[in-house]
Each structure stands twice: as C-alpha cells, then as structure tokens.
Specification:
This protein is mostly helical. Helices cover 51% and strands 4% of the residues. The chain has helices at residues 2-18, 21-26, 38-47, 52-66, 91-111, 118-139, 150-153, 163-180, 198-215, 221-234, 258-265, 268-271, 278-286, 292-295, 320-323, 353-365, 373-387, 399-406, 410-413, 417-431, 436-446, 475-478, 480-490, and strands at 70-71, 142-143, 160-161, 244-246, 275-276, 296-297, 335-336, 348-351. It starts with a helix and ends in a 13-residue tail after the last helix. Keywords: Lipoprotein.
Length: 503
C-alpha cells in the first residue's frame, strides 16, 4: 500500500508541471500531439475530473444541495437548495468538454492502434464511459460520438446524441475495455486511480456496468436486468479497498484536494457559505450514525455530537428566521469537518464499494439477481464506515460503533419491500456523501430518501426538486442548431425535464 501511495505521489507532483497553461497549447494541434505522452494525458483526465470549481459549484453548490445533503443562504454559486437557474449550471458542461474530454479522446487516438499499449487503451475506454455518464446524467442529450475530436476532424460543432444511444456506447466501451485488460501485457501508464492494478480496474468496470444497469431500470428493463447479471457475474468491487479515488498531495494547488483548496482559498469556513443541511443532520442524529464525527464539525473544528446543527434548505439571509426561529448567525451551524474532508491531502472519491453493495441489495429485492439483501446492506454500512479511515486517524470509526449502529436493526424494522428500498436509498445517500453527482442521480432514479422539496418563493422550480441541469447559455450561440435539435428530441431545456432513464 505504501509503495502504491508513493507511486501516486510521484505522478501527482509530475502532473503539477503538466497542468500549466502550455499543456493546452501543446494539445491543440494534431500535428504536435505526438509530443504528449499517453501517461500524462491519462493522469490529467483522472485528476481534473473534479477541480476546485466543479467541487464547489457543481457538486456541493447544486448536486448535494438539491438532495439536501448541504445547505446555504447564498443566491449565486450555492443556490442549489433553492433550485435557482443560475449560470453555474453550465460550468460542468463547458469545463469537461474544454479540458478533460478532449484530452482523453486524444489519448484514445494515440493508443488505439498501438499494440504495445493495450491496457492503457482499455483503461482509457472505461474511464471515458465514467466521464460521459457523469455529463449525460446531469444534462441528458449531450455531444458524444463527435465530441473531443475537433482538432483532428475540424468539426467544432458536434451533434447532441440521444441519451439512450450514449448509454449504449458507454456499455460497449466498458465491455470492450474489460475484454482487453490483460495482466500479462504492458502496465498502464499514468494511472493515479489504481496504479495500473488490472484486477481492480476489472472490478471497477463491472461495478460501472452494475451502476448503469440499475440506472436504466425504467427506460430499458430487459437491458437493465441483463447488465446487472453480467456485472455481478464478472466480478464487482469486493471491499472498501477497491474504492476508486484520487489520493491528493499537499503542497501545490494542482495536486491538492480541490474541496479543501477551495475552502481554504475562498475562506468558506469563515463565510459560512456551505453548511450541512438539517435534513441530512437529522438523519445522522436520529440513527446515532458515527459518520457524523467524520463528516461534520462547527467552523472552529468542534465535532461534539450535541453541538452539531444543520441549516434548513431553501432560505436566504432575509427568510432564514422563518425556517429556523432560533437563527442568530451562520457559525452556529455545522459544515464539513476540516480535520478530515477538507484536508489538502484528502482524496477525491469517484466510486465506493458501499454503493456496489447497496445496488446489489436493491437488485435482489427487485428480483434481478439472487442473494441476501440484508447481508449486502450490512456489508455496505460496514464498508462505508471503515472507508472513512482514508482521512487518517480522525476518520477511523471503531468497530464497536459500527456494530452498535447495525444492532439497531434498521433493515429488520423495514417490514415491507418499499420500506427496505427506502432504507437502501437512504443509506446510499449517506454513503455517497461528497460524491454528490451519484447522490443526486440515484435520488432521481429511486425517489429515495423521501425528501420534502424546498419552496423558495422566487424560484421557477418552487416546490419541485430539479431533474436535470440546463445547458450552458453559450451553447445557444456557439452550437445553436445542434442544441436546438437536442431540445426538440429531449424536451424543453428546463430543470423540470427528466432525462431518458428517469422517464
């Protein structure tokens, strides 16, 4: 494990020199692309899947706030819990296409026909599916088949593919990647997620297929069942050690934990712009969840359980007193624990083993696969709590506390299938904290946990939790015809329009 971390550290410090402005300059011409090595390209795309802007605005400011994990009184970047339609909604789209997607596609172009880099090509295909499913899950129909090749094809106005076709492509790429992975062949270059571990990449790829299969349950039930079965049989994540994450390194902004960096550089602990929501805090307190001590703290770092307080969703500075008559000041409310989640060397998490266990528990209850749903649920709880050790000593949850939590018998107390599904969905919501993209996507798919929408008076989505992000405004001038076709196919470009798998 130490050797693995040292390898990652070396790669990340190397990347600090790569992510300068001239990196983009070198990557704009197909004639000079040969000067860019595949390894640094892969490292760049893995590390920059979540930068400080996306961590603050897209993940925390909208995804986590819309599903009531976080809360804010802000009306701009942190307006997600009021369902306001700000320009922040387009940031993920423009950032991913202008940086990560084009560089990953260039990597694929470089290694696709290189017989000496089969494993690197396989990993790139799997990672491409991960990136595009995050984009399409937020927006619906998006550029896919023509995306990322502008400088090779001179097509700077890519068409928007239907989400159903995108998902078919994602599945195909993962299956191809899995079929190519071979431990007897050359190592993967530049992999900061698994250090080139082929076995763990296979488990990650199959776990993604499981995620995709469950996400498609309403849109394509037959394909959903088939994918879930294939994924489980192929071998999904087995333990907390299979977590997909970037282990950050303190010292340079380009290698530090983006969430911790943005809190530090923007003074967010002092300003109080980001708080734990009352809904989320109430769940942690009502179940005596030991993850509270890892997730939550007052701005001064105090983690005492009886002092933690969540901020109600859907209010601003002028209206908060109606939501909480006891309100005096923002420092009274809990935020992210600076001794764990906000450490500059804390990891960015892309997928956890607990999610995989919970998806299997759900699939069993729905008759997709055979097995013990309770066992998978309890495996998920244990894995999620053990996983917190990635934050160091302050994140370690004693085994006794884990067993005390499980001894409440929450699964047994859920007497109907619907109650059990709600419990699984609620645990998913807690276990994917700080992976708000998945918390938001899974809530849209399942409706769990049951949330009471906020009713901010001036919101166009008052009383209805949004179902997607709106396209960036500039797309209507830069790629007008194609975005218009997407709107015609998918439905109005509104936050109330459901994506394909959610209809």
């Amino acid at each position: 494990m130490i050797r693995y971390i040292l390898k990652i550290t070396t790669l990340l410090f190397t990347l600090a020199f790569i992510t300068s402005c001239d990196f983009e300059d070198k990557n704009i011409s197909p004639n000079s692309s040969g000067t860019i090595k595949p390894g640094p390209l892969l490292t760049y795309t893995q590390l920059n899947t979540s930068n400080e802007g996306l961590a603050k605005r897209t993940q925390v400011g909208y995804c986590m706030m819309m599903v009531q994990q976080t809360a804010s009184l802000d009306l701009n970047e942190m307006a997600g819990d009021k369902y306001l339609e700000t320009e922040t909604l387009g940031i993920f789209f423009t950032t991913m296409y202008s940086t990560v997607i084009k560089n990953l596609q260039e990597l694929i172009n470089l290694v696709e026909d290189d017989g000496t880099m089969v494993n690197t090509y396989a990993v790139a295909l799997i990672w491409k599916s991960y990136l595009f499913h995050r984009i399409t899950d937020l927006y619906g129909d998006v550029p896919y088949s023509e995306a990322g090749n502008g400088y090779r094809t001179q097509n700077f106005y890519p068409k928007y593919d239907r989400q159903s076709d995108i998902y078919a492509g994602l599945v195909s790429d993962i299956e191809k990647g899995l079929s190519l992975l071979d431990e007897t062949k050359e190592p993967v270059e530049g992999d900061v997620l698994y250090g080139g571990d082929i076995t763990r990449w296979k488990r990650f790829g199959n776990s993604l297929l499981l995620r995709f299969g469950m996400r498609m349950e309403k849109a394509d039930p037959a394909q959903s069942r088939s994918l879930v079965t294939k994924a489980v049989q192929g071998g999904v994540m087995q333990s907390a050690g299979d977590i997909c994450m970037v282990q950050h390194v303190e010292g340079k902004a380009s290698t530090e934990n983006p969430l911790g960096y943005v809190f530090k550089s923007h003074g967010l602990l002092v300003s109080g712009a980001i708080k734990i929501s009352k809904t989320f805090m109430d769940r942690l307190k009502s179940t005596n969840d030991p993850r509270m001590q890892v997730y939550c703290a007052l701005p001064d770092g105090d983690t005492a359980r009886d002092k933690q307080k969540g901020l109600p969703n859907g209010y601003d500075l002028l209206t908060i007193s109606s939501g909480d008559p006891t309100y005096t000041s923002l420092p009274d409310y809990s935020t992210f624990n600076p001794a764990t989640l906000l450490l500059l060397n804390a990891p960015t998490i892309y997928m956890v083993h607990a999610e995989v266990e919970l998806l299997q528990a759900e699939a069993i209850l729905k008759g997709y696969i055979s097995g013990d749903a309770k066992a998978h649920y309890e495996n998920a709880v244990r894995s999620s709590m053990q996983q917190q050790a990635i934050y160091g000593d302050a994140g370690v949850i004693p085994e006794q506390q884990i067993e005390e939590y499980l001894s409440q018998g929450l699964f047994e107390k859920a007497t109907t299938t619907e109650e059990k599904l709600n419990l699984i969905g609620t645990e998913f919501w807690v276990a994917t904290f700080l992976n708000g993209y998945e918390s938001y996507a899974n809530w849209r798919r399942t409706g769990y946990p049951r949330l009471t929408p906020a009713s901010y008076q001036s919101s166009p989505n008052k009383g209805t939790i949004p179902l997607r992000f709106r396209y960036p405004t500039e797309e209507y001038s830069i790629n007008e015809d194609n975005v218009a076709e997407a709107v015609n196919n998918q439905g109005e470009d509104k936050m109330s329009t459901a994506v394909w798998w959610d209809k």
